Amino acid sequence: MLRLAKYLRPYALLIVLSLALLFVQANANLALPDYLSKIVNNGIQQSGVENAVPEAIRQSQMDKLIIFMSAEEQALVLEEYVLVEPTSANVDQYLVDYPALADEPIHILKEIDQAKIDLLTPIMARSLVVVSGIEQMIEDPSKVPPFGEGFDFDPSRIPPGMDVFGLLGMMPAEQLSEMSTRINEAFAALGDNMISQMAVSTVKVEYEALGMDTGRLQTDYIVRIGGTMLLVSLLGGAATIAVGFLASRTAAGAARDIRREVFKKVESFSNVEFDQFSTASLITRSTNDVTQIQMVIFMIMRMVLFAPIMGIGGVIRAIDKSANMWWIIALAVIVLLGLILIVFSISLPKFQIMQSLIDRLNLVTRENLSGMMVIRAFNKQEDELKRFDKANWDLTDTSLFVARVMVTMMPVMMLLMNGLSVGIIWVGAHQVAEANIQVGDMMAFLQYAMQIVFAFLMMSMMFIFLPRAAVSGGRIADVLETDTIIKDPEDPKKFSDPFVSKIEFRNVSFRYPGALDDVLHDISFTARPGETTAIIGSTGCGKSTVINLIPRFYDVTEGAIYLDGHDIREVKQSDLRDKIGYVPQKGMLFSGTIESNLLYADENASSETLKESADIAQASEFIFDKPEGFGAEIAQGGVNVSGGQKQRLAIARALVKKPPIYIFDDSFSALDFKTDSALRKELKEKTGDSTVMIVTQRVATVKNADQIIVLDEGRVVGQGAHHDLMDTCETYREIAKSQLSEEELA
């Protein structure tokens, strides 16, 4: 995979943008449980009261609170409140919200930030709880104050009509300080959380005393937080859609670029490189393997980058909600990682096998489709079906094994998640009972735990898909990083103008890569313009190998081939092949029409050129027998025309190019003798000053050639005209006598 990372560089901006959107999406998802916690805790349980710092409080009540504050705390609290009198100039703007202002002064909280609220909360909460406890004791002396039994204050001893809090305010500072110390010690055991929760109910009572609509306060709070949740959800949804779009665009674009580069690379391969990779394997690498890479790029951008943000953010927020329950998540994550490790260790070897099995299936399928006529001719349908079934079942069994391993993850994951939920509810219920957390916090912790588990689940899915993609990436990189043996020179030479199409072999020897022995030995001859040079010999003697050296399908091992006075290795391959009209042994036609196949040689060729080339190739008769003429359809590989027609169309295509050099590699083998003779006669007349090279096993085809090269076991054993070779070359004479009668040879 890393070997293909460079193909993501053009999409760096999209990746960075998607990463930013992933942060937005993750934070939106992580914020929702917190908002839910606020709705449950503040909106439902606390009736919309957010904290123990009231937004307004009567002066009489404030006077009671500051009794239990130190001088520094009193100054801190009173600094953040504004006293509004019933006679104040701006009283009207407050009366609507606080009707009690008409009868007595109230303290109204200034606009302060959350840091100040957090600072004031424990001070106000403690005083509110103390005052509330004393008021409850006044109403019912049997009640024990919430700050413990050590508070030796008996309201029944207060004379009737005397203000209790006024009396407390007149207590000596030492005595009041001692009482505050005992109260603070009791509060320390309760914890700030529980004190704040206890104080909130007192704040609500104070709001009711102020004449505020507490029902509306609760409704407004729930609607406000709910609306915020909706907006956050919409923002997260928009980010999700945007990330999906960017990830799809990046993955599809990278896959397109990789596929193009693979195709471009394969096009530059010589026969040496094609010997390393089978056709079926190259097809699999440029289709199935690239698809695997595309899918993984999408998943990485969509999940792998998202999962750590969710996981880390979820852990931080969950611990913030309840630090006492972190071990539950840790236990679940450890179990999940163990499950991932087991699945990973089982699946990885199988993924490495699957790609080779796909190659094998493609190979068998391709051979069956291309060799269907041979299979039917030998009644081998059943044998081929068994061979296909073997490849098919091997792939199926491996795929099923991996699928079965992977499918076990979901029920195990559901069991783990349900167990995690039960554990959190069980432990959380005890925490709620002990007032360590609130119900909303427990619910938020549960949702964060699910998000954390899902984050690890997403990463686990990637651990399963990445190995297969890594195998595919390696296979693609192997193709892209294959060094082509045949390369253009760094400082190429140019052919002369006018071009001289003389081909000269100088002591050429050739050995196939990896072979121990040469297949061609010290080949030397010259093919001149305006002449036909034929190469003949027994099967396997190296005729086609000689021809393949001219367009540099292979490079010579020793010696050199000269064209127009230049070593062909010193000019660009494109310049070299521009001078050659090549007709291979197997006439290859492309899907399209007859016209499109002929124009393959020269897309600007005129209709007159097409007609003339078809006439020379003896193809006009069957072309114009069709109603469509040049517009007749050609199926893939030319399967809807005969072998002879295919060869003639391939010859016509080379003629359309009008090159200075023609190479016919056993291109007349499917033609009858009459067509062969007529075609060669037309060629002789129309090719003019071109150099013509013909490879064949037919003596009749080369009998009238200007020069005949006779090969035997990779060596030139004869060179000259037909009549000369009949006298001087035993090999040629044997071939000729085996094909023609004495009268035909005369």
Structure explained in plain terms:
- This protein is α/β, with parallel strands linked by helices.
- It has 3 domains: 52-212, no CATH class; 275-480, ABC transporter type 1, transmembrane domain (ABC transporter transmembrane region fold, Up-down Bundle), CATH 1.20.1560.10; 503-745, 3-Layer(aba) Sandwich (Rossmann fold), CATH 3.40.50.300.
- Helices cover 61% and strands 10% of the residues.
- The chain is built from 28 helices and 15 strands.
- The strands form 4 sheets. It has a 6-stranded mixed beta sheet, sandwiched between helices.
- A hairpin with a 2-residue loop joins strand 14 and strand 15.
- The protein starts with 11 loop residues before the first helix and ends with a helix.
- The mean pLDDT is 84.
Across the major sheet, the strand order is 9-12-13-6-14-15
Query: Which CATH class of the largest domain applies here?
Result: Alpha Beta
Class derived from helix and strand content: alpha/beta
Q: Supply the CATH superfamily name of the largest domain.
A: P-loop containing nucleotide triphosphate hydrolases
Basic shape? rod-shaped
Tell me the strand percentage band: 5-15%
Main sheet properties: 6 strands, mixed
CATH topology of the largest domain: Rossmann fold
Total strand segments: 15
Q: Over the alpha carbons, how many angstroms does the gyration radius reach?
A: 46 Å
Mean residue pLDDT: 84
State the helix count: 28
How many domain regions? 3
Q: Which stretches are low in confidence, meaning pLDDT under 50 for 5 or more residues running?
A: none
| Terminal CA distance | 68 Å
Q: Estimate percent helicity.
A: 55-70%
